[in-house]
Amino acid sequence: MNNAFRPTDTTEQRRKGRKDMVGSGLRKNRFLRHLTHGSGVTILLFALSLAACDNPSSSHVSGDNKNLTLATELPISQPAEHDVGIAIQNGAALAVQENSDLGGGYHLTFKPYDDSTSKAGGHDPNKGRANIEDMVKNPQIMAVIGPYNSSVAAAEIPVVNNSGGPVLISPANTNPGLTLRDQASANGLDFNQLHPAHHRDFYFRIPSNDVVQGRLLANICLASTAVKGIGAKSAFVLHDNQVYGIGLAKTFSDAFTAGGGRLVGASTLVSKDQIATFSHLAATIVALHPDVIFFGGNPGEGAGELKQAVAAAGAPNTLWVVGDAMVNQSSWFSEAGTAAAGIFGTVAGPELKTLSSASTFVAKYRNAFKTDPLPYSAYAYDSVMMIISAMKATIASGQPVTRESIRARIAASSYTGVTGTTTFDADGDNAGSKAFSIWAVLPTSATTWSLEQNVDAGFI
């Protein structure tokens, strides 16, 4: 594996909030096979540093500490997000298990944290923040894999940046405002609070952000059937009024209208607290006859129940479009019931079984956990391997392993692993490939998420 390190970007460069908007071009020659809805409705998917500043708690990490810990911070105990949360946790645990002996007398252990609560019914930003605050106090914890949800990340990033770590690498966060100044305000985020002045950034993420994901989903919807797209002209847009859902709904809406599509309506009344009112919202949606219904949001917030209500109101065949938070969650089938089919979405990562570079990882994962990994499992594994490589390089240099030394090497690293090469840019985003996979629940297989195709969204 390639593990070269280059000079890190300065804090000042990271503060510029570099604009990272992607182009609107559309590559015409990447297609998905076409899907046929059981009722005759055809669904054709278009295929697609160190600055002179200090962080207060770095000095509290002892250079004599040779018993190091890597933690995960994920929603694992509630059914809404359990599947992906456990898959990420497993990917991280596997890497630690394989590398518990770091050399030089250093040892690495694994510690999982859960940021879901029964009260929230899933991820809980307050629980996530409390978890991170607990980790800050434990000098053995050098780095954390997580969180899964962007709203939890918004609560946690100020903690690690103000405290001098530990390093936080998310294999799943996609809200663009978490790292990009010019995207923060539109996503309801305070960039200066997330990234306080005169503090180094300890937050990084692997997947592409929702500027890319929203445009990819919009372009799939807009592409004509002549080029194997859906050919949608109108959309009704929903979101759950959370950080992730707000951002993804906005980027989808902007790209859909910029491409000539028409928004016939929008609503933020999608949450588990609003389920009793869904018959009224469903009637409104059906009366407007949208070609597609877009939902930006998280599982467990009522999207499945609303899909049932829309079907009951007379539009059972209207195609639903979702982002990565919803895909590959088994909870969708209990929430949507008999209306589960007729939905597609994207994951900001490749399906692993199609990648020759991932075959060894897939086999090891299956052997360890008796199930197949999900795309974010490999992102978690690669994230841990980056951290371990930074630890080993620091140990080999004879320098103490501290949160700051790990952060500096992560920021400057170029690492080639299961999912390709990861190199972080000045904002903490992955400057590597923009890999996505497209999944659907089909009438012919209405109890499972089926892979349609891996795509490279770098051209979007």
What's the helix and strand layout?
Blueprint: H1 11-15, E1 31-36, E2 42-46, E3 67-74, H2 82-98, E4 101-103, E5 106-114, E6 116-117, E7 122-123, H3 125-136, E8 141-145, H4 150-163, E9 167-170, H5 181-184, H6 191-194, E10 203-205, H7 210-222, E11 234-239, H8 243-258, E12 262-267, H9 278-288, E13 292-296, H10 303-312, E14 319-322, H11 331-336, E15 343-347, H12 359-369, H13 375-397, H14 403-411, E16 414-417, E17 420-423, E18 435-442, E19 445-456
Parallel strand pairs: 3-5, 3-8, 8-9, 9-10, 11-12, 11-13, 13-14, 14-15
Antiparallel strand pairs: 1-2, 4-5, 6-7, 15-18, 16-17, 18-19
Helix pairs in contact: 2-13, 3-4, 7-8, 9-10, 13-14
Description:
The protein has helices at 11-15, 82-98, 125-136, 150-163, 181-184, 191-194, 210-222, 243-258, 278-288, 303-312, 331-336, 359-369, 375-397, 403-411, and strands at 31-36, 42-46, 67-74, 101-103, 106-114, 116-117, 122-123, 141-145, 167-170, 203-205, 234-239, 262-267, 292-296, 319-322, 343-347, 414-417, 420-423, 435-442, 445-456. By secondary structure, the protein is an alpha/beta fold. The protein has two domains: 31-47 and 210-351 and 435-459, Rossmann fold, CATH 3.40.50.2300; 63-208 and 355-423, 3-Layer(aba) Sandwich (Rossmann fold), CATH 3.40.50.2300. It has a seven-stranded mixed beta sheet, with helices on both faces. A six-stranded mixed beta sheet has the order 4-5-3-8-9-10, sandwiched between helices. The longest helix has 23 residues, at 375-397. Residues 1-54 and 56-63 have low confidence and may be disordered.
